[in-house]
Structure formats: C-alpha cells, structure tokens
Amino acid sequence: MALPDNIKNKKLRGIAEKVCNKIPVGREDALYMLTTDDILDLGTIAHYIRTRLHGNIAYYGVNMNLNYTNICELRCPLCAYSCDEDDEKAFLLSLDEIEQRVKNAVSMGIDEVHIVGGLHPHLTINYFEQLLRLIKEIKPDMHIVAFTAVEYDYFAKKNKIPLEEVFKRLMDAGVEALPGGGAEIFSPRVRDIIAPKKISGSKWLSVMGTAHKMGLKTNATMLYNHIENAEDIVDHLSKIRNLQDETGGFKTFVPLQFHSENTKLEVTHTTTGYDDIRIYATSRIFLHNVPHLKALWMYLGDKMAQTLLRFGVDDIGATYHNEKVVHAAGAQTPDFGSETFLKRLIHKAQLIPERTTASYRSLSAGLEKEFV
To answer: In total, how many domains does the chain have?
Structure first.
C-alpha cells in the first residue's frame, strides 16, 4: 500500500516517508504535527496508517458502564464526579444493586462491562471479587474491563498485599482487560495541579507494566484540553510508546477531551476542531506500535468522532449504558447510544462497522476473529 503522493507540505512529506519505511517518527516530528495547519496532509498520513492496520473496518462495542461508587479519597480538581463520604450525592452500590443493573443491561444485549470507581476507604478486595464473580454468574461470557491503574495501586496498599496478588485474584474472579484511566498527563508540573494526590505518571506506567507482565491487555489514555502544552503531549506519547516497546501490552490509545464545566479547574481555553484532529492524527502516527486508536463519541460528540475516523481513528467507542463520569463534568452528549446509531456513524464515514469488545474479537454475525 503506497502513501498518496499529493502531500504538499515538505515536513509532512518527510514524516510520510518515515511512515512508509516503517521508521518511528521523532519528538520534533510530533511537535510539528501538533501545530501544523495542514491537517489534510496530516490526515492523509494518519489514514494511511489506520488503513494499513485495519483496512476499511471501524470498531464499536455494545457495553455498559458500571461506576460502583463516587466516594473517593483523592478528590482531584479535574474530577466532577467524586464525593466525600458525607456528601448528599455520595453512593456505594450494593451487590444486589449491581446485580439488577447488570441483568437489565444483559437483557439489552451487552457484551462487555466497563468498571471504574472512586477510591473508597472502606472497601476490601473481597467486595471486588464478589462483584466480578456476580457478573460472570449472570453472563459467563461477559467481557470484563475493570479498574484503572490508580485503583489497582490503591487495592494493593489498602489490603496490604503485593500488586501481583491483586491482579491474580481479580483475574481469577473475572477481569480480562484494563481501561486506561488515571493516566491524565504524565508531566509532574501539570499533574501537581490537576490531580495532586493521584499516583504519579511513572507509577501509572509501572502498574500497567505489571499488568502486561501478568498477561493483561490494557488501554492507555491521555487527558487533554486543560493546562497542558504540546511538549507535555509529546512527552506523554513518548512514555506510552517506550513502555509498549518493552511489553507490547497496550491494545488501544484513547485521547480524552477534558470537560471542565463542573470541576475545580479554571480552564480559559478549549480546543478547536483543528486541535482535536491534530491530537488524534499525531497520536496515530507517533504510536506506530499501538494497534488501535479510539475516539469516544461521548466525549467528543458524534460528528467529531465520525470525522476522526478519517484521521487515524479505527474505534468509535461503545453504547455506554448509564455513563456518569464525563457527564458529571459537563458533557452534553447523551449517556447512551444505540448500536444502530453507532453503525450509522461508521457507515456514513464509508467504513465497515465491526462489533467487538476491548479484546478486538469480532462479535458481528457470530464471528470469533481477533483483530490485532
């Protein structure tokens, strides 16, 4: 597959030549891509890579979000969802409530549960083992993507057991993959402002490295549209790429657009459509060793997510029954999307929709084909 020869921008043509020769682009290349106004040339390169990897397929999922508690010890300034224990909005789902929610979602045909929550001071690992086994009893083939690196680190400290034991026990109970939350931006300068009590970026990477060594595949995220700059973004991408070179454990990279409306962060600007396109396209080009790039339609809006399918993205996200976290921060999108809605978005982008889970095994027409 040859890259089109209509790239006019000289620097982007040099980057395209590296891509064609499978040479990783450098940090200076990434900085240039994050600032160029030639987004059509940039998109040509990014779309070339996504087509080389995935052809004309675009992935989507049919899942539910399960946020088991909003009580959290950290209370990060970036988070509009977390509460103190005595807050009137605070909640902790009982196992009976979880059972009912999962059964309702299963009746609607979901394939996957995505589980994250706050760092609750009174929950032990037994609660999470019971939660996971309960879901597997309801639907034995349910794909469970559960708990961020921040949560796993907390579980180990709270229960006074090694991190490896936490992973083993929760994998035995049903965990099959990890979401990428908690990465935010690795820059200590930024992290000290937006999430001062959260584990460091280096610790997040260490926890993910352990997960990969335990045989788990994971996502990686990056939170943008707050107080980061282009250098912070390139640093973040570089650290993801370096760990991927070591472990090969990241399946998907997910840039997350920050919504500040109900948070404690004062953000004086917001990204433009050009900014979003540059970030996603640059991520696809720079992260040559991460197979998938996901644009969550619920964060970006359906029109932008659909557009990004032509700028390097191959995964548009899922149905997300009952999503709470981004909507607490002020997202204006619906908190649920139907399978028909997601398939239509993909079809209108002239791509082929493929129903899958975080494992990227096709669930369309009963197929069991894995997409690397």
So the answer is: 1
Query: Which residue is it, tokens 């908690």?
Result: 182
CB 138 within 8 A of CB 103: yes
Residue environment code for 81-119, b if the CB has 16+ CB neighbours within 10 A, otherwise e: bbbeeeeeebebbeeeebbebbeebbeeebbbbbbbbbb
Does residue 280 have a pLDDT over 70? yes
Please tell me which residue, 232 or 75, carries the higher pLDDT value: 232
Structural domain of 21: 10-366
Q: What's the DSSP call for residue 289?
A: T
Distance of CA 317 to the CA centre of its chain: 9
- CATH number assigned to the domain comprising residue 301: 3.20.20.70
Nearest residue to 299 via CA among 338, 326, 271:
326
Q: Using the Cα atoms of residue 301, residue 303, residue 306 and residue 311 in order, give the sign of their dihedral.
A: negative
DSSP 192-230: HHH-TTSPPHHHHHHHHHHHHHTT-EEEEEEEESSS--H
| Consecutive H or E run containing 190 | helix 188-194
Question: What value does the CA radius of gyration of the chain take, rounded to a whole number of Å?
Answer: 20
- Cα separation, 350 vs 307, in Å, equals 11
* Residues 331-349: tens digit of each pLDDT: 444 556 789 999 999 999 9
Q: What number of CA atoms fall less than 13 Å from residue 338's CA on the CB side?
A: 3
Asked whether residue 3 is domain-assigned, the answer is no
- Is the predicted pLDDT of residue 133 greater than 60, yes or no? yes
